[in-house]
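DM from R.C. (forwarded with permission)

"hey, sorry to bug you on a friday — could you get me a structure for this? deadline for the figure draft is monday and I only need the backbone to look sensible"
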Amino acid sequence: MDASSIDMPRPDRVNTPAEFIAAMRALRGWTKLTYRQLERRAQQQGDHLPHSTIATALSRDRIPRESTIASFVRACGGDRHAVEVWLAARRRIAVADKAVGHLAYAVEAWLVNRTRYSTKETHAQRVELTSNYAEGTLARAVAESKGDRWVGLHRRHEPPKLRKLVRRLRQN
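My reply, with the result:
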């Protein structure tokens, strides 16, 4: 690792997209460079990193693309090893975030389709639908969610019991 990047902020302990973005902001703060200065440094290294892309990446709650992160870390003074550390953290968080996203989609689909089932639905079919969430996976995903993936759940016209369940899950 480059001597100048020894005390550089690293994303080793971040677990969510919001924490990752906060670590990126800390990295920018560590450099004490403006967005335009970072853009120029990226250009000097052969990267394309517009100042508007940097501003957007640091203001959203989604993790930027790998190419953006690599360019950003290099512009902040990171060497090849520092870039790999940041990209590894991004991949780790993206996988976890995607799993929560898939769960959110599955729950959303289940809620929408739940009202379409006929009275011929068997008990076995109902058990099969809910077995994936029986071990607290849904509750864990809701509790760990920092984004707005679950906002849509309270806006639909679900039965009052379902609204109470969602509210209880969010409180735990």
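R.C.: lifesaver. Residues 3-93 form one domain.
me: no worries. The chain has a mean pLDDT of 75.
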